[in-house]
């Protein structure tokens, strides 16, 4: 049977007419008000059935276009309330879709949904539930994929803004991501933690350290609630604690920073092996803390921090690793600096007591120990001042 295109409207024209008539195409699920449109349904079914015959003849029964047409026929049968025929068409469509598109395709989800509608109208609630659950599962997977891509795009945009020091704009982008994540997952989710942490980092870049710490504390609270669940990731918690320690260092609260790093180490010992790469990364935080202690003249604290960094690297990376060797050298340099400081202090005391000759030896030794260290210039000047 062929369609008489001279007398009858085209399929596209008919579909446009139906779309305008009570939103019949858009309302693919649920019970629709079809009053006054019954004649259009009848025409649509005729045309789609003719199309189905042509497609089957030209492309074969297993072609995807056949599944699309079967779905459309099932749609009109559903709207008519012809449940048995609708189920037959939709089940045929679903079989082809699963073979050609797979379980996770959006079109497959639509067919599951429409099947569920027909089962529901037929009061077969268990089968309806099964269809709706399958449709929902597919839709959620698609939504997660779309949102994952959107999140990646937003983060790329955020990084480009950050590179231009447009921190306020970057924060707004992160807040957009956060809003969608909260709607999808709620607050207790690792992606939410990562987004909060990203905002905290941007606030830190603006020197808004109190605000940054507030965001970090929210991250810590979420991580504590996630512990023991499959959503808990030690790497995320270590990143959070690392950032918190950095903020405290920037505020001059070195002891607080060291306490947070000690907490970080405890988390790592409980969740990771000593040779895990994340453990080695923690040494960098102790390096930074040691440098800050050194600049403040708190050499004992600096030595302890570098000693911790060195021990971490020895265990995680081995004695022969370049990072371990650098750490060992830095630790030795700090110890020499401490010795130089003690010798210089001894010399200055003797000088103050009038013992210039007795002061000369410790000051010279102190200058020798400080050679190549941060304090070498300082102690060299001290020698020149007192002894020419």
UniProtKB/TrEMBL annotation:
A Pfam match: TPR_12
The domain of life for this entry's organism is: Eukaryota
Protein name, as recorded: Kinesin light chain
Q: Which InterPro entries match?
A: TPR-like_helical_dom_sf (IPR011990), TPR_rpt (IPR019734)
Swiss-Prot/TrEMBL keywords: Repeat, TPR repeat
The species this protein was found in: Cylindrotheca closterium
Q: SUPFAM superfamilies in the record, alphabetically?
A: TPR-like (SSF48452)
The record, for SMART domains, names:
TPR
């Amino acid at each position: 049977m062929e369609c008489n295109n001279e007398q009858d409207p085209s399929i596209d024209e008919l579909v446009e007419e139906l779309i305008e008539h009570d939103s019949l195409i858009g309302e693919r699920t649920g019970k629709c008000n079809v009053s006054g449109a019954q004649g259009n349904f009848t025409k649509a079914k005729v045309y789609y059935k003719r199309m189905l015959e042509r497609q089957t003849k030209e492309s074969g029964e297993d072609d995807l276009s056949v599944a699309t047409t079967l779905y459309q026929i099932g749609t009109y049968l559903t709207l008519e309330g012809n449940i048995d025929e609708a189920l037959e068409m939709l089940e045929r469509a679903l079989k082809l879709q699963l073979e050609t598109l797979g379980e996770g395709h959006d079109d497959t989800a639509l067919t599951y949904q429409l099947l569920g509608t027909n089962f529901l109208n037929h009061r077969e609630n268990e089968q309806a539930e099964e269809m709706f659950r399958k449709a929902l599962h597919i839709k959620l997977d698609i939504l997660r994929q779309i949102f994952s891509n959107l999140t990646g795009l937003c983060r790329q945009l955020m990084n480009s803004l950050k590179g231009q020091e447009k921190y306020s704009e970057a924060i707004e982008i992160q807040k957009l991501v956060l809003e969608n994540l909260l709607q999808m997952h709620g607050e207790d989710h690792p992606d939410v933690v990562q987004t909060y942490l990203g905002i905290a980092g941007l606030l830190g870049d603006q020197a808004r350290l109190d605000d940054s710490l507030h965001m970090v504390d929210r991250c810590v609270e979420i991580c504590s609630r996630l512990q023991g669940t499959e959503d808990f990731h030690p790497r995320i918690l270590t990143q959070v604690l690392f950032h918190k320690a950095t903020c405290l260092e920037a505020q001059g609260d070195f002891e607080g920073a060291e306490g947070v790093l000690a907490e970080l180490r405890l988390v790592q010992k409980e969740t990771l092996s000593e040779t895990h790469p994340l453990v080695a990364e923690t040494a960098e935080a102790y390096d930074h803390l040691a440098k800050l202690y050194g600049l403040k003249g708190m050499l004992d604290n600096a030595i302890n921090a570098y000693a911790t960094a060195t021990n971490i690297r020895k265990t995680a990376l081995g004695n022969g690793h370049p990072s371990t060797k650098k750490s060992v050298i830095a630790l030795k340099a700090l110890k020499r600096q401490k010795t130089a400081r003690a010798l210089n202090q001894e010399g200055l005391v003797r000088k103050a007591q009038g013992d210039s000759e007795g002061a000369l030896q410790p000051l010279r030794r102190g200058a020798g120990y400080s050679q190549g260290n941060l304090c070498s210039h300082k102690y060299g000047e001290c020698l020149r001042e007192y002894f020419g």
